[in-house]
Amino acid sequence: MYAAIPQTLTFAEFLAWDDASGRTFELLDGIPVPLSEPNANHEDLIERLCTYLETYCQDQALPYVSRQSKQVRLKTAPGDREKSRKADIVIFAKDEWQRMKTNSSSAAAYVPPPGVIEVVSNNWKDDYLTKLAEYEDLGVLEYLIIDYAAFGGIRYIGSPKQPTITIYQLENGEYLPGKVFRGEDQIASILFPGIPLTAEQIFAMSR
């Protein structure tokens, strides 16, 4: 179902738009599309991981800012209606975040962010297929898929299914085959080098 609006919106117009329902939306071909609200486990993992990453960036003097539930403007051809994704966690370049602080516009990924993290829910194909292609096309350097409840298909998380983190890293405009992490595997990230987190420690953030 689509929200009732008088016309299609640009990304900037969409960020300023509010249907007064309290719902959250993404932009699909200029039309706001309502999203399902995450469950409590999903939301806890996002909040705790985002806080951890923000502290890690500050402690390690990394040039990134981690923020949860931010809109990411997707790549569209000139003249096409704009699209967005509301990503679970967006890793912004610190310089870009500082730039946004100098104006009154809504905080969002107007330019391709270095990283995006999505936590998988029932609509797992969006994360493993659709969003993967969208973030690759956009030029996101690192895309993390956190499947804490083993929702994904066996071709992604194996059989028997088990909680899995898959990290895609961009090289020459294409994502390399995803690196898979489970259990006590330590996460290997190009954005957060040496981060002392195992897959299981991230999954535990949902509990």
TrEMBL record:
Keyword field contains Nuclease: yes
Ranges for domain Putative restriction endonuclease: 12-199
Highest rank taxon of the organism: Bacteria
Keywords: Endonuclease, Hydrolase, Nuclease
Cited Pfam families: Uma2
Keyword Cytoplasm on entry: no
GO MF assignments: endonuclease activity
TM annotation in the entry: none
InterPro entries in the cross-refs: Nuclease_put_TT1808, Restrct_endonuc-II-like, Uma2
Protein name per UniProt: Uma2 family endonuclease
